[in-house]
Design a protein that fits this description.
The complex is a heterodimer of chains A (about 220) and B (about 325).
Chain A lengths: L1 H6 L1 H37 L7 H16 L2 H16 L5 H25 L3 H9 L4 H32 L10 H11 L3 H29 L4
Chain B lengths: L1 E12 L2 E13 L4 E6 L5 H6 L9 E6 L2 E2 L5 H9 L1 E4 L11 H11 L4 H14 L15 H13 L5 E5 L7 H18 L2 E6 L2 H7 L2 E6 L2 E7 H6 L4 H11 L5 H6 L3 E8 L3 H13 L2 E12 L2 E11 L2 H14 L2 E7 L1
Parallel strand pairs in B: 3-8, 3-9, 6-7, 7-8
Antiparallel strand pairs in B: 1-2, 1-4, 4-5, 9-10, 11-13, 11-14, 12-13
Helix pairs in contact in B: 3-4, 3-5, 4-5, 5-6, 11-12
Classes of the chains: A mainly alpha (about 220), B alpha/beta (about 325).
Bound molecules: adenosine-5'-diphosphate and magnesium ion.
Chain lengths: ~220, ~325
Amino acid sequence: MLENILNLREDIQLALGQTAFMVLTSLAAAIVFGGLLGLLLYTTSNPLFLKNTVVNRIVGVILNVIRSVPFLILMILLLPLSKLIVGTKIGSEAVVVPLSIASSAFFARLAEASFSEVSRGVIEAAVSSGATKLRIITGILIPEALPSLVKNITVTAISILGFSAMAGLVGGGGLGDLAYRYGYQRYQTEIMIVCVAILVILVQLLQWLGDWMVRKLDKKL
Amino acid sequence: MVEFREVSVAFHQNKKTVEAVKNVSLKIEKGDIFGIVGGSGAGKSTLLRTINLLQPVTGGDVLVGGRSIVGYKGEKLRELRKGVGMIFQHFNLAENKTVEQNIAFVLKTAGWKKVDIQKRVRELLEFVKLSDKADVYPSKLSGGQKQRVAIARALANHTDILLCDEPTSALDAETTASVLDLLREVNQKLGVTIIMITHELDVVKSICNRTAVMADGEVVETGNVYEVFTNPQHPFTQQLIGHTQHFEIPQEIQSSISGPVVKLTYLGERAAEAVLSQTAADYNVRYNILHGKIEYIGTKPLGILYVNITGDRSDVEQTIQKLAERTYRTEVVFHA
Ligand SMILES: Nc1ncnc2c1ncn2[C@@H]1O[C@H](COP(=O)(O)OP(=O)(O)O)[C@@H](O)[C@H]1O
Ligand SMILES: [Mg+2]
């Protein structure tokens, strides 16, 4: 049993690398694009910024559509787009495209909620000081929302880790794929357990890291 | 300094229209501490917020420093706001910024240089007596300290008008007094014109020189604070002020006394003594003091005394006449 695991050490390392690549790339995309979309949703719903119901509704509907399609299906539907962007329809690189889109849509809603939690009065005080909207966004809104944004980035990272387990379907590899292939298809339960254990540890680490950063950032208590 | 000309503000919500401010005309002079009082929902906040256009008007005109501001937009509006500070009931400090960073934000916004910002922040914190709190986050401050920081922030860019929206309503009595002292200092030492709204008459009495009373979106009475308090004209104001000056004569006293109970209002601390002793001797009446207090409006005392007068019927009548001549106001409030 231990032998089996040792034999597959390289495979496990490779899978871990693939998972890390997929999660980190998509997380970066989610923070940037999801964050901007969240900001767009927030500012277009707030009269103190750029209230625009039409834009808000359209963006909201698009995000909801993406969020309601199961990731497996979204991945298959978006593979042509992967070909266009990263030049291939298989492998971890190909999976990153649908994964980034799904996680951006996921994080956009969470980011919107984080921005909405910022007290209206604090924003109003900044408005009354004569600051431009851009300065209020960069100087007040984002710093005030930061602890909550980090909390939601943690939630997003853990969800991406879950989504990435489906990458095996298009040859994307990763820990989830390895667990499925050896544990389920070849009845090497110990490999499955090792992979799952690594995933559990990763989730724990992400959670700890997120919580630690929130504690550092949040000055409200 | 600030003038409202027939200002109206209406809100449309679910096909209903709320007229929050109706046709208000007011003039606030440079150097005033102007208090706008009224009950909750009277339209005070809405009116105040038209001065820096946090609230657009739906009718009329608002003049700041002689210029109509209701059409201001973009850069022009931001310039106006840089010269008009504002503080709020719940302080509205950025929680993830230190005291210094909160104040510095305003100065950066106004284009100050880094070295000047540091100097100015130190100067402001000294003024509000929080020099040791520069690097502290707001969550570590008491309510009164938070409001002091908010005042420093509002004044940072050398503003000459300070708008205050219920600045002491979230504070206890003691802290209220110290924040009001600071505002008085802001007015006297820095020459800042203060426009303050509140539902607390005591606040107006303690620091304002002029006041406007609002009810249901309208200004029902305006004038010098001392005059409004000693001689309210509008029934709403009379009721508002009556509340704080009213004394309910206890049942057992009502049933045990004879003769009238008179409420005397007099200006000055000791103004009633002379006339009481004189009339007591001249008309051979006896006084029984039921209740008395001296209120201070600004620094000017206003005395209120409830006395029961006994003696011969005609003596008592003559006494009341004499009292009416010699005091600010004499009212018979009860007759046994
Ligand atoms: N943004 C708004 N939308 C709709 N109604 C409002 C709004 N702001 C205030 N009002 C209404 O206007 C009236 C006056 O409110 P306000 O100026 O806040 O009163 P006050 O400050 O005297 O308590 C209230 O009836 C309030 O419900
Ligand atoms: Mg109000």
